[in-house]
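Before the break, one more example. Copy the sequence into your notebook; we will annotate it together after we see the structure.
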Amino acid sequence: MCAMREKCLIISGGEFCPINDVPSGTFIIACDRGYEYALRCGLTPDLVVGDFDSYSGGFADGVPVDRYRVEKDDTDTMIAVRYAVDHGFKSVDLRCALGGRLDHLLANLQSAVFAAEHGLEAEISDSRTFISTMTPGVRRLPRKEGWSLSLFSITDHCVGLSIRGVKYPLDKALITNAFPIGVSNAWKDDEAEIEFEKGILFIVQSKL
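Here is what the structure looks like once it is written out:
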């Protein structure tokens, strides 16, 4: 791998979603059935990982494949996220990681949290949902017509949360991972501004 690549695209084995916006230089990891999804999108992975309980086909010549036992602690997607963490990527972009089985969906969300806890920016998206992690600081999100904006604490709590430019603002609030106070907000201004002091957030933009 080239030193200090910025972004790692991880194609999971959840519900298929077309992928057609991959920046040049992105390192692509396909997870099990994610290899089939990559081919459907015209993408050649730099690495394929998995126990291959959901894909039994062949692989193109020259594509590295890391095989794992079915009896393992990490999901295939988590293996890919660990690879991104261990190899110094700055961000991970999980695709085909939503929908399908609820247990795997929750595991994929937890894998994104793992990435965020290790200093990577993490995104999970499909055609109707865009989820991103946020650590303390300030972020501004341009208005998206026809989309809702929700915030969830993915640590025990997030401290000093302010959200401005929205229908339901907050000012220096404490939110926890046990009450959905931040769900289904809406833009009021041309951009929303999110700021907080401690914790990790999921920012969820959902198409209405």
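The first strand starts at residue 7 and ends at 11. Helices lie at 34-40, 76-86, 102-117. Try to locate both features in your own notes.
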